[in-house]
Specification:
This protein is 11% helix and 44% strand. By secondary structure, it is mainly beta. The protein is elongated.
């Protein structure tokens, strides 16, 4: 197949879930590994059992070969069947190749997806809970879903990721806290922290009918992710970004001047959020060498104007994960998790500013 193809536009309509998920509506999912992707499919054509990768299994979505595909294995058109994939936080684009793209004739012979529902689940894995076929996750669904319409074409189609990552991050952190609370006794004997991932589910809602078969196919899925550069909407249009080679977080203004906010050769960094006025930053610190141990994520708050790290005690007693910012100017709030009360809270940054200036 010619790789020099144009991406097709994909229409996305935003819909709220018909009803909000019930509280603690947890689902057990065993995710298998296929070409570096964790995945699960509700069914597959000619399924040969859990221990065999079938000819039409969902692992084909990640092999880079348009002559292979996932085909659902339900009766009729496979409406309601789905494939679930663990995705990276910050995913910006979803690229799908519809139908069985082996040839034009085979593409037309089989069903293709017309409309699909996209949903997000927070998947949480307790270390040690694995099976012979995959990794066990307990998953909680996000309250919103999105509906997409695909073109009836075998060419790759780009879909803008339709969920807001800031809201998803808050949701995932909340799900982790709920999971820990529900499974407190079980986790007491586990030395490592539970692993949390985002899971994207694509469910078939309607199809373009095939000329010969009613099997609905999908040839490929891939993802494009955002960079670690965040352009803040402040007056100076400051760029705050991670420089991995320097083990630092740098700030560059519109005139090209660059300053160092923090540098530590023993750490690597990830930016979580920047306030609307660019004066506050949440960053994750992790040891540069984590090959021999598992470490908990360390969230830190910085004031970029004074280039100061805010001591955790000035945020709140029991403050854990720092989620993001809400509001503007003097009415900017920091959103965080209270690990003592196991709930989400927020604190006015104006009060913290007065303490550190």
């Amino acid at each position: 197949m010619n790789k020099m193809v144009k991406y097709l536009a994909v229409s996305i309509s935003f819909i709220a879930a018909c009803s909000s998920p019930q509280k603690n509506l947890w689902e057990e999912i065993i995710l298998r590994d296929g070409y570096g992707h964790l995945y699960f499919s509700s069914s597959e054509l000619e399924n040969r059992g859990a221990y065999v990768r079938g000819l039409y299994g969902a692992h084909n979505l990640f092999d880079g070969n348009s002559a292979t595909c996932w085909s659902e294995g339900a009766k009729d058109d496979g409406l309601g069947e789905s494939v679930s994939i663990a995705i990276k936080e910050g995913t910006k684009i979803i690229v799908v190749q519809n139908g069985d793209a082996k040839s034009d004739k085979i593409f037309k012979d089989n069903n293709r997806i017309k409309q699909a529902e996209l949903s997000i689940l927070a998947g949480i894995h307790t270390p040690g809970e694995v099976t012979e076929t995959g990794v066990l996750f307990n998953a909680l669904p996000y309250k919103k879903t999105k509906k997409i319409t695909l073109e009836d074409s075998s060419r790759p189609q780009k879909i803008n990721f339709p969920f807001k990552w800031k809201a998803l991050t808050r949701f995932k952190n909340s799900a982790v806290r709920k999971f820990k609370k529900i499974n407190r006794e079980k986790l007491a004997g586990v030395k490592q922290e539970p692993r949390a991932v985002f899971i994207l589910r694509i469910k078939i809602l309607s199809v373009y009918h095939g000329d010969k078969y009613d099997d609905t196919c999908l040839s490929a899925i891939s993802f494009e992710n955002k960079t670690d550069i965040i352009e803040s909407p402040g007056e100076k249009q400051t760029k705050i970004y991670v420089n991995e080679s320097q083990n630092a977080i740098l700030m560059t203004d519109e005139n090209g001047g660059t300053e160092t906010l923090v540098r530590d050769p023993k750490s690597i960094f990830q930016i979580v959020d920047v306030s609307a006025d660019s004066k506050w930053l949440i960053a994750i610190h992790m040891p540069a060498d984590i090959s021999h141990t598992r470490v908990e994520t360390d969230y830190r708050l910085y004031n970029t104007e004074m280039k100061k790290l805010v001591p955790q005690r000035l945020i709140a007693d029991g403050a854990g994960e720092l989620y993001g910012f809400d509001g503007k100017g003097e009415d900017t709030f920091l959103m965080y998790a209270d690990n003592k009360e196991m709930t989400d809270k927020r604190v006015a940054l104006s009060g913290i500013y007065d303490k550190i200036k």
